[in-house]
Amino acid sequence: MQLRKMMVMLAAVSTMSLALTACGDDATTAETCTSDTDCSSGFCNTAAGVCMETCESASECPDTEKECAPLAGATNTAKVCQCKTNQLCNEDDSTSLVCGTVSKRCEEPGTSTGCTKDADCTTGNTCDTASGQCKPAATTCSGEGKATCAYGSACYNNACSAPPAPTCENYNNFSNKAALGTTGPIIFKAATTSAAVDSFCDASAPKRVKITISAYSSTPFPATAAELNGFLYVLVNGTTRTPVVSSSAGNYVVTGTNRERADIVANICVAADSKTTSLGYYFTGGNFFCFQSSYN
């Protein structure tokens, strides 16, 4: 009798296990593959190198990958479960998953199958948006700004490197270093444009110094300087101020296919006999750029 009860219980547990396996509520970890024969489902997404679950209807798919359809570009025409949006990938309370651009699976950002921008990739890698894959960043480059360098670096003398590390007193006395980072706009260059006594400034500090700050961003810069958010400069004593940018033409120039570069002419008023000024510039979430402006 005891043996019979045990066998009944084991059968019930086995049935429950099968039922749970069949439920489509949670996405599973993707198997890697190079061909359909590598996958228990019989379907390999060869572009991403991951196995996919076959289906006949969306009801058979996890809530996070609820589209049941043939995979675009695949030679295997079977229907498979696919993700649609990052939001749906995080329905199970996760907040870090993305819908893979190539894999069509929910996955951690920065994997080789789901990037849409450099920020999705690990340090030292850039996103090939054509394939959705993170690849090692170039070490050589041409031009200036981000060019083909990893996010956070810039092109200097045909080589990718980080902008100069901040060592000025402005940075040393700056108390809000937590506002800095590597994902915000990156300042890669600053230059003194002009310096002259100008009615733009008060009589107590009549010389107007124009400094052009060049930066790139992973998101488009706004249409006007007035819409810039989190762009600040720091005095030698660590005090933070908002740069004054004239609204006249040429003082705020945004370029690039995705409006990713901005050249901003910031103004500062100094004493008539001033010859040099130490400044620090930064965008919230970006780097701190020290600049010693010298002029006549």
From TrEMBL:
Signal peptide region: 1-21
PROSITE patterns: PROKAR_LIPOPROTEIN
SUPFAM superfamilies noted in UniProt: Growth factor receptor domain
Protein known as: Uncharacterized protein
InterPro entries referenced in this protein's UniProt entry, alphabetically: Growth_fac_rcpt_cys_sf
Keywords carried by this UniProt record: Signal
Upper classification of the organism: Bacteria, Pseudomonadati, Myxococcota, Myxococcia, Myxococcales
Organism, as annotated: Corallococcus llansteffanensis
Domain of life: Bacteria
